[in-house]
Structure formats: C-alpha cells, structure tokens
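## tool: complex_structure
## caller: assistant
## args:
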Amino acid sequence: MTPGQRRWIFLAALAGLAAFYLWGLAGLPGFGNYPGPYGDIINRIAVAQTKATGVVSAVNFEYRGFDTVGEEFILFVAASAMAVVLRHLRNERERDPRDATADWAVPPASDAVRLAALVFTGPVVVMGWFLASHAQTSPSGGFQGGVVLATAFFLIYLSGEYLLFRRISPVDLTEAFEAVGAGGFAAIGVSAVAMGLPYLTNFLPLGTTPGAVSSSGTIALISFFVGVEVAAAFILIVGELVDQTLLVRQGDH
Amino acid sequence: MGSTAHIAAVVTPYTIPAGIMDVLQVTLLVLVAAGATAVVLIREPVRQVIMLSAYGVLLAVLFLAFQAPDVTLSELTVGAVALPMLLLLALAKVKRREK
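## result:
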C-alpha cells in the first residue's frame, strides 16, 4: 500500500469518526442539565433514609453497594495479580539493598526530602484515617483515605529508609490486611443474608443524628474496610515495584 | 438538633453568583485541555510523568469547581500521586536495565 492510499483510508476513517462524534454531541443534553430521576430522588431521600450526610458515600456503600463490592475486588485481584507477575523468577536473584544503591548512580535522598517526609508522615496518617472514617459525614471515603494512608508509607521510602519501609509493611502482613479489608466488605453483605435480609442490607442501627460519625450503620463500617483494603493494596503494589527496582536483577548480570 | 433542619441545610444549594462559577469552570476546562495536550507533547518520560501529575491536580480542581469533591479527592490521590509514582518506579527499573 502506498503512503497516498494509506492517507486516503485515514482521512475516510477520520471523516466517519467526526460524523459519529458530531452526531453524538448533537444528542447530548444541555450543559449542566440533568434529565434522569434517580439523582433527584436520592437527593431528597438519602439523608433521611441512611442518616449519612455524605450522600456520595451513601450511594457508593448502600444504594449501589453491590457494584462497589465488584470494584473492590477489581483492585484486590489487580494487586494479587501484580504480586504473582512480579514474583521472583528462577533466573533472578535478590541483591542486598545497600549494595544495590551503592553502585547505582542516584544520589541519596536530600535533607530537604528527608525533612519533608518527616514533617508530612504524621499528618498524612491522620488525614488518611480521617478520610476513611468520615465517609458518612462529608466528602471522603475508604478509597481516598486508603490511598492517603498508603502514601505515608511511601513517604518513608522516599526519605531513603527502604529497610524501614519494608520492616513496617512486610509483604505477608500487607497481603493479610488486604484480604481482611476485601473480605470484611463481603462479610458485611453476607451477614445481612445470614439474618434473612437481602445482600448488603444496612442492618446496623442508623443512629438519630444525620452527620454524626457514629450514624449511618454499615456505611461507615464498609468505608473502614475499604480503607484497609485500598491502603494494603497500594502498599503491596508499590512495594513490589520498589523491590523490582532496588533488589531484583536478571541472573546473567 | 432537629433532623429536618439538618436535611433542609443539606439539600439547599450553595448560592455562588453564576457568572463567577461559569468563568472558573471555563478557565479550568481550557487549562485541563492545555494540560492534557502538554502530557501528550512532552516526549521525555520522566518529564511526562511530572506533567501527568500536574495534570491530575488540574483535573482535581476542575472536579471541585463542578461540585464533585469526592471525585476531587480520588483524582488527587490516584491521578496526582499514585499513578505518577507507579510510572516513576517502572521508569527507574527500565533505566537500570538499560545501563
């Protein structure tokens, strides 16, 4: 095929794509116009029904909790698959991390980076914990909180303390936490079934004050387990990549 | 605290002058488009990842301006921190093998 022919095929495809794209744009509702009924219904009933003022969390962990279980397990499977793919192969061997950094032309963490990590680690833990435990009251949730919590561990690694990072997040323990988080969510759903209710029914007392941390029943509890699962999954994924970068090399080197 | 008063306070929309929000939203949309283009045009991988992180921050602010604070938090944590971090680690690994 000559470049000229190729260009004509490209232009024809581009014209077709443009036509479909414009057709699709023409059918869109106006900017900011919300046609569906569900959002309006949820806005009216969610706070009274769930006693959670974090309505997005109420939707995620209650109204469509079943979908969120699926999403939770997507992350769980992804992190597990990463651990399987990055397992140590027969022709790879681990090197001592100190040696590995010694012959690697990368400067050690500067004082500024170490200080920033030192200053931020504590607040980041508090922030992550706050987000994971306040899904029911304000914009936050286990997912965001979990990632922020995991970031505290990455700060320790970034400050040059690889060995400390590994000591406080050993792979076995991290995997156990990930399993507890993912399993806890599913177990809350099954608990409802054991009581003769539909899967993931909010069976805990909802409390009386909307927006109180102790209100909203299983929404707060599910958010907590999601936080544990997400934090462990991210630590697992990044930990595996860090090990790959620092420790593992092909046997023929 | 009466629960009805609470609910009323929650469903009452914020009253920010529409003109200011429009300007903010359009500005952010343009910035996001520019940021996305910059991510594509930068060809050096490490710089591209740093730009991707900045683009994540831009998107997060955009979501905030469109009244989606939950998505803002997710985008900040994943788009601006977690994804660039994974990419940087992968780049470090590849760089070492090339050496």
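## assistant note: The mean pLDDT of chain A is 86. Residues 36-250 of chain A form one domain. Handing back to user.
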